[in-house]
Amino acid sequence: MRDGLAGPDRLWPAVLFALLLLPAPGFAQANLNARSFTDLDDTSDASSDNSSVSTSGGLTSILQRLSCAYGLNPGGNSASISLSAQMASYRIFNPSTNAFDQVSMRSYNGCPSGPTISIKPGATLRLKLFNNLPVETATTCPPDAAHNTPHCFNTTNIHTHGLHVSPSDSADNIFVEVPPSPKRNASFHQYVYELPADHPSGTFWYHAHLHGSTAIDVASGMAGVLIVRGSRPARSGAKPGSADIDTILHRRLLALPLREHVMLFQQIEYGCFDSATSTAPLVDTTTYEWTCPSGSTGKIRGYDNQLSFLPDKRPGQPANALNSTWIISGRYTQINGVVQPLFPSAAGFVPAGDIRRLRMVHGGNRDTINVKIVRANLSALGLADSTSLSAAQVNTAATAATNALAGDRTKSSQVTTLDRICSGETVTQLEFAEDGITLQSMIEKNVNTMNPGYRSDVLVAFPSPGLYCILDEAAAASATINFLPNAMKVKDRRLLSFARVGPGVNLPNTTVGNHTRYWQYIRDQLVAANPALPFQAKTDLTSLKLTAFAPTIPVDRAADETVKTGFEIDPTVTPPTFTVNGSAYNPSNAPIPGTLGDVAEWSIKANPIATHVFHIHTNPFQIVDIFNGAQASVFADSGDGCSQAELGTGDTEYCHLKGVVRDTVFIKPNYTVIMKTAYQDYTGKFVMHCHILDHEDRGMMAAVQIKTSAGAALDRLSAPFTAVSKDAGRWLARLRGKSEAQIALEASLCSARDFGSR
């Protein structure tokens, strides 16, 4: 296991040894290598793939590239690691210009993505966060900033998204703030996370989460993947869900774990500017997309002209159209810091038939991602195509496909080329976990819809040698987080990556029932690789049921309490307000109360004007039902799949969600999600909010406070006196001559150095 304290002194000997093994690159290969997939997985397989690439990519050196790809996998029951929030300079490939843009971004450890951290259930993780970002000025961090006006962009903290750990003290406490300091490593916070022994294994992530700067930090790249690796096998008579899915995801020979790849999707909304103080990104006068002239440096400077919704002047848009600045910018989704990477590397191949585990994390802020894998049609490139291509032929195809796209400068021409090339067989993804929680059964997905905050673990087997397109598939705008009246009507098709698949074992064409050949092949391989499973678990595996490995939460009883919430935007005021139940976030607002041990049923609605992404900290939830705008359930009466009315919308992303346990869920306009959660293990204050993070920074967040039954009873007794105290405070303010507007304003202000009371 890798030492979590692996800093430069520990890392460089291994890196230098890897460099000695690298070939001297030719120009053409170096150009491809610059877009090589960087695997953020913390395994030796990933290290081998990363060290085979002989250029620095978008970073300043090969040493930096290997350092940024180095995962932290501390062993034992106690581990210590550190992260540094600091500026990073690197290059991002821009397909619209077929060139690299220089950027300067807030980051962890000076890298496009934070390092992958792996821990195990029952472990204690000590994470020291240093803030080495530039010291704030009064312009962006005024001493009395309003709560819901984004501010203090370089003041930060960290949130372990999806972990079931304490929200208090030095654990997952998002009320902590870590300001920058002029002296390196002088400002820091020591986090201590104690994972329960029964914590589920799975894919989680961490990111900046200080109210007022969350979106700008995450949109800069301040995020990383956090993996809980479990080793608890299935046992006869054990409680369902108490085993770890990791224990059956291994190869048939030698019981080696399946090769896995971490894919952190990020949406870096950088712009270039005509002066040191400008906040309006430069635009191309023809396309009205953002542009970065040679010699300029891309940055994210604020929320007025970035991380916002603005008039869309691009050709072909309706009059008075609005759009998110992410869409207007024309920027592209990155995978592990690279735009349109060659997977698994610029020189490597995935063998046909080799089952791969993809740990996909949506760490972006401003776009839905519809992951679809399609075989490329090589005849469209003027090349011979067959199911028995050689590695050399696949290499030629990869070069031809990237060259074909290189000539396309507009989004429409890119879509035309993608439609021509990416038109072969769809590779079915077998999803077995969402938001880090193993599902009751594997699900076949041709399109895997992910919204900000989502995680999806899938198994993929490429059927034969060839070139494959990993796409962000087109969708109706109403099925994406960028829906807004008078906004775009369709999300266009984008390339996420080209996958290079070499000779191996071709998948047979046999199928069972209504299942695809991918389901059949992966099922057969898993059953053969796990002959020693207990009878019931092995029987379940023959139909890809995962009962032994799927954690449950104790919500199958009547709820003790109910919570009704609504995400609302009011565009009729200036600036628009972003609220939960009509109130923008304010620390003086009474938190949503809960009692330790209770089951709560929540109703969460998005108002008709926009979509939202609900996320709650500390405790996951189980989806009970989802109602459309007509207040009809989207699920079929049988409980299996969607109703005909929902299928008629053309969007099927809700169809498998009944009974699924997760921590983040997309809510369409005027839809309502009903979920149940159990307040287990921890008391304390945490938050629920919209995971479109600029919505959260602008006020779409509310606190939740869980107390023991005795504490809750005391609150009920003291509530009348608390209300009288607040009224008395307002009465005294009026006696001092303050207007109602002044009283309201003072209630909305906060100190930039006292976030703990925000």
Automatic annotation (TrEMBL):
InterPro entries: Cu-oxidase-like_N (IPR011707), Cu-oxidase_C (IPR011706), Cu-oxidase_fam (IPR045087), Cu_oxidase_Cu_BS (IPR002355), Cupredoxin (IPR008972)
Principal location: periplasm
Keyword terms of this UniProt record: Metal-binding, Oxidoreductase
Entry GO terms, CC: periplasmic space
Domain of life of the source: Bacteria
Subcellular localization(s) per the UniProt record: Periplasm
Entry annotated with the keyword Acyltransferase: no
UniProt GO molecular function: copper ion binding; oxidoreductase activity
Domain Plastocyanin-like: 154-230, 567-707
Protein's recorded name: Putative multicopper oxidase
Annotated source species: Candidatus Burkholderia verschuerenii
